[in-house]
Write a structure and sequence with these properties.
Layout lengths: L7 H54 L1 H13 L6 E6 L5 E4 L11 E6 L8 E10 L2 E8 L1 H51 L15 H50 L6 H30 L7 E3 H18 L3 E6 L3 E3 L2 H18 L5 E9 L2 E7 L32 H11 L3 E6 L4 E7 L10
Helix pairs in contact: 1-2, 1-3, 4-5, 5-8, 6-7, 7-8
């Protein structure tokens, strides 16, 4: 294919031109056929009326009167386009216009060329039997119809030429408009790639496909900016969270080195091990989160979230009792397709957060059920809760609401919860428990209600 024909603009111009041409062809053919059919219908009605009138005259006054009437009409200058003839079975002309050839001796309509007229116009005639082998021929020369159709043909050709020119013009203008809109997108992308990260695709408010594509690109760019801000913020949090334990670990190791000969060495070593374990847990959580976010949708077996929640509560109940808390659980079958290990991790993280932030002596409520939206897990506590303007932020990595960051943990728990829910096609919602926080996880239910694994 020629390089010019591969251009989108060229193909757009050709497509619009062909569309205009096809539209004019269809319109012209429709009008031509309609006019031709109407003219033919009117001619047939007029000729049929003439034939009926002449046959009535013959019936009333005889064949001689008919022949006389035919000769009179043939010589009438006002009826120059009308043709009348009476012929016998051999085609011999008895009266009227010479039709030139023997017509098929059958009643009905015939078309032929007038042999006498130098222009040889078309003739539409009707044959009617008169008896004793004689036939009445009455018709009309189609000179006016042919002239009108010739004018129409020339008009159609002219319209086709106009259609081609208009099609090319409209196609070219459309190509210019499309090219301008695309150049805006290209220029914006080029400038953003050049470092103007705050730039966005301008919208004209028309709501056309280009405007919608620009809006989607702007949403994508906003999301990229938010992710980059999250990466920068996460980097700051990592530096802040790891710097303190690393500093303490170094100090304790130095103290261990200095006190290697006295009885405080084992305690210092244990403290250093605890700090090291905290660092390892942080990195393990980061790796687990990255792996979950990098996995596609789960294709595991059907599991019962109620059973998973019961196992998690059974694991945490003794610890809750030790600190004066009570964990109440209310379960109903909640079947879904998923990874049981990851779902267990989701429930454990939410229970751990509830026990960590709820007030001493408070109760924690765990509930599972199946609704129209899907499988539903609710874990509610009576702790300080989370304000509405911070509920989206707490899902980011290393986000911890207390400024002193003294509560044990690494700020990755809710990030893991959201990643696991997202992988299972679900969502996580935070609601006010008045007081406290109610975390709701909704995941699509299993379409086949099989047995839980």
């Amino acid at each position: 294919m020629h390089p010019r024909l591969q251009s989108t603009s060229t193909r757009l111009v050709l497509a619009v031109s062909m569309a205009f041409l096809a539209a004019f062809l269809l319109l012209g053919a429709g009008i031509y056929s309609s006019v031709l059919a109407n003219l033919d219908h009117d001619t047939r009605e007029f000729v049929a009326s003439d034939v009926a009138e002449l046959l009535d005259l013959r019936q009333r006054a005889g064949t001689a009167a008919l022949l006389s009437e035919v000769r009179t009409r043939v010589t009438d200058p006002d009826d120059a386009d009308l043709l009348y003839a009476v012929i016998d079975s051999r085609g011999t002309l008895l009266a009227g216009d010479d039709v030139g050839v023997a017509l098929a001796h059958r009643a009905g309509w015939v078309r032929f060329r007038d042999p006498v007229d130098p222009a040889h116009p078309r003739v539409l005639a009707k044959l009617a039997p008169l008896g004793r082998g004689q036939w009445l021929v009455a018709g009309m020369r189609l000179r006016a119809e042919d002239g009108f159709l010739a004018i129409m043909q020339r008009s159609v050709l002219l319209a086709l030429a106009v259609a081609v020119v208009l099609g090319l013009l409209v196609g070219w203008l459309t190509s210019l408009w499309v090219g301008r809109r695309l150049r805006q997108l290209d220029e914006t992308a080029r400038r953003i790639a050049g470092g103007e990260h705050g730039l966005r695709v301008p919208a004209d408010g028309s709501g056309d496909p280009f405007d919608r594509v620009g809006a989607r690109l702007n949403v994508m760019l906003d999301r990229i900016d938010a992710l980059m801000d999250g990466v920068r913020e996460a980097t700051d949090h990592i530096a802040h969270d790891l710097r303190t334990p690393l500093t303490r670990l170094r100090q304790r190791l130095e103290a261990l080195h200095a006190a290697s000969g006295n009885s405080s060495a084992p305690a210092l070593i244990d403290a250093a091990i605890v700090e090291t374990d905290a660092l390892l847990q942080t990195f393990a959580a980061l790796l687990r989160l990255s792996r979950i976010e990098g996995q596609g949708p789960t294709d595991g077996s059907v599991v019962d979230l109620a059973g998973i929640a019961s196992d998690a509560v059974e694991l945490y109940a003794p610890g809750a009792v030790d600190i004066g808390m009570q964990v109440d659980i209310e379960t109903a079958p909640a079947l879904l397709v998923g990874d049981p290990d990851q779902l267990f991790q989701l429930v454990v993280n939410l229970l751990d957060n509830a026990m960590k932030y709820a007030a001493a002596g408070a109760s924690i409520r765990v509930r599972t059920c199946t609704t129209e939206d899907g499988v539903r897990l609710e874990i509610a506590d009576h702790g300080p809760g989370i304000t509405a303007d911070e509920r989206d932020r707490v899902f980011d990595r290393f986000q911890r609401l207390e400024p002193h960051r003294g509560t044990p943990g690494n700020g990755l728990g809710l990030s893991l919860v959201r990643a696991i829910a997202t992988r299972h096609g679900g969502r996580v919602e935070l609601h006010d428990n008045q007081p406290g926080l109610c975390v709701v996880v909704v995941i699509p239910a299993a379409s086949v209600q099989g047995e839980a694994s």
